[in-house]
Amino acid sequence: MANFETVEVKTDLLIVGGGFAACGVATEAAYWAKKNGLKVTLVDKAALDRSGAVAMGLSAINQYVGVKDGENTCEDYVRYVRQDLMGISREDLVYNIARHVDSTVHLFEKWGLKIWTDENGKYVHEGRWQLMINGESYKIIIAEAAKNAIADAGGEIYERVFIVEPLVDGNKCVGAVGFSTREEKIYVFKAKATAIAAGGAVHVFRPRSVGEGFGRSWYPPFNTGSSAYFTLKAGAEMTCQEVRFIPVRFKDAYGPVGAWFLLFKSRAVSAEGGEYMAVRKEELNNWAPYGLAKPIPANLRNYLGMLDMDAGLGPLYMETDEAIAKLADAYKDDPKAFKKKMKELEAEAWEDFLDMTISQAHLWAAQNVKPEEKHSEIAACEPYFIGSHSGASGAWVSGPEDMDTPYKWGYANMTTVEGLFAAGDASGASSHKFSSGSHAEGRIAGKAAIKYIVEKGAEPTIDAAKVDAIKAKILAPLDRYQEFCKLTTAPEINPNYLLWRQFMDRLQKIMDEYAGGVTAAFKTSKANLERAMELLAFLKEDSEKLAAADIYSLERCWENVQRMWQGEAHVRTMLFREETRWPGYYFRSDTPKMDEENWHCFANCRWDPASGEWEMTKKDVWNIPGV
Ligand code: SFD
Ligand code: AMP
User: pLDDT over 70 for what percent of the chain?
Assistant: First the structure.
């Protein structure tokens, strides 16, 4: 076995991940841990200041309820999420996040985040729920607060340690094993409770950006399905694994559209000039009641554009020039004021990208796009797994303790595995939490995890033989490479192993062609999904033959094994749900209609660590009474 040093870390609470949810867990848990003399340890595969989806920053806070200003109620937010997810959401979780999210946003402001305010000192809204921010340093500010909280409570932070496997004792999570991405060290974390918050997944599907564009995607390439893998391997029940998210974005550099639709009130049109949301309005009747209520769900907005693409009416365009002209029109009688307004709108248009998707600004510059002069191409991205945005995939977690919810088995946000908590993209069916709601949910999970430790946290029982087996399994690709690499003159061509890139390309091809990726125009069917399962079984066998020349490649190997598990959970759940509920995310051609009678429910799955078998179950949707 490769000669790595083993570092053992004992802690009370282990936090896996360093993004928005993990920072929320850390901030809250450290406070309660200090009061109770407990230790909190956080481990991130990257560096907290710039890790996760918010690495580049963001230009808006997408969840703010605004209760103090009487703008909205938490019940309004529950209705909004129910509508956007076509009726399938865990309303207890959504409500719990909604009632905590405003205080999280106020904390962000206290920590130094600049939220735009108007001349009356009120927050500037992008849309009903969204606030505009100067967000280039958003992640640094939120990470700083988490780091301070952990330091103040005497905890520890490990950066650049990639977590692979959970440590389990029966149906209890007792820690995690991972390795340093810089040094020859393997880490064994032993914990009384663990919070998983390692984001969602990208590159499970073949991206649009291949070749020279590879690595560019809307979702950050460094979130690779670690949360789904971790919870699945621990034996946790998962939910909404079929609910992938496909955002519409500016094409090829994935610049967000929210500010264009909501703030600039822009239209999106086909090459013929028809606004698909108007031209194809009739189609929405087929998806009643959700298609007929406002706001129209994100997947249906996508779908209407996709119908134009299928009809050969592409490319699709965002009418940026028209939107800017309309906004400046009010100043047309005063040339000086008009010029000033135009400059301001141009600056906002560029800043929207420079705050969070810098490469879109590069692409605009490279292709001579001036948003005030010329419209710009938009397209549906490849599918992503991001339970915190408009997708919903994640672990099935226990509801809030003070609510009369049918989904409750103990501590808030605990998965069905004892001592394992999940938040952000790692927890499912509570969409539209975004950055602020993920942090709020992290705080909820962090507080509950400390309560669990205080009330029930026993010293973890850890089987040394199991730990040794996990270590050997993690390092096996390095050993395999050393054993066989000299047998061929070109080390990347070898009958005894495959490298991560070959493995990932195969996974992406399977998912793209059979499971409704870009190439298949987001369509799939029972027959295609069954074929995907056959091919995934071969891929799983071949995962035992992955080889890595160095630590960098070892990380890539495990990232792609994790993606494969996310892909398998996805294919199995799309097969299970015999209807099309979210056209625009995926379309099952053999069951092309929504079936409220049989499928107005959650589709859950669980991989049983003892038998290696998958179980699929339906769970009822519960609506908060009176909401
Ligand atoms: O609108 C391991 N999001 C937006 N939210 C907003 O509030 N406003 C916006 O303007 C947003 N936009 C946006 C958004 C996302 C993306 C990708 C873009 C634009 C381009 C959504 C939020 O970003 C999202 O909801 C939260 O970040 C979710 O939080 P969380 O904690 O679930 O995920 P994370 O922040 O990505 O953090 C993941 C962490 O896990 C680490 N990690 N650590 C150890 N071991 C492993 N194996 C690990 N695998 C991953 C990561 O390093 C990271 O620290 S808009 O344009 O759409
Ligand atoms: P996006 O940039 O697409 O991630 O959008 C940012 C926020 O605006 C999210 O909360 C979206 O759900 C919302 N949003 C984007 N476009 C629209 C639209 N056309 N109608 C309603 N809400 C939208």
Answer: 100
Say whether 36 is catalytic.
Answer: no
Q: Tell me if residue 125 is catalytic.
A: no
Which tokens go with 445? Answer: 């999970």
Say which ligand is closest to the CA of 63.
1
Q: Is the distance from the beta carbon of residue 569 to the nearest atom of ligand 1 less than 6 Å? A: no
Catalytic residue, candidates 435, 543, 553, 560: 435
* Residue ranges around ligand 2 (CB below 6 Å): 62, 127, 130, 247, 256-258, 261-262, 295, 298, 301, 390
Check if the beta carbon of residue 324 is closer than 8 Å to that of residue 346.
Answer: yes
3-state secondary structure of 531: helix
How far apart are the C-alpha atoms of 74 and 391, rounded to whole Å? 20
218 as an active site residue: the answer is yes
| Contact predicate 197/19, CB 8 Å | yes
Q: Which of 616, 609, 517, 519 is nearest to 575 (CA)?
A: 616
d(CA 280, CA 269): 11
Q: What is the mean pLDDT of residues 2-30?
A: 97
Number of CB atoms found within 10 A of residue 565's CB: 22
Residue type at 51?
A: S
Tens-digit pLDDT profile for residues 446-489: 999 999 999 998 999 999 999 999 999 999 999 999 999 999 99
pLDDT band at 341 (very low <50, low <70, confident <90, very high): very high
CB-based contact 197:22 (threshold 8 Å)? yes
What is the residue whose two structure tokens read 């499912």?
Answer: 428
394: left (phi over 0), alpha (psi -120 to 50) or beta: left
Length of the chain: 627
Confidence band (pLDDT; 50, 70, 90) for 410? confident
At which residue do the structure tokens 């952000």 appear?
Answer: 424
- Which amino acid, residue 322? E
User: Average pLDDT over the chain, rounded to whole?
Assistant: 97
Nearest CA to ligand 2 atom 8: 258
Q: Looking at the CA of 224, which ligand is closest?
A: 1
Test site for ligand 1: of 9, 49, 54, 196, most ligand atoms within 8 A of the Cβ: 54
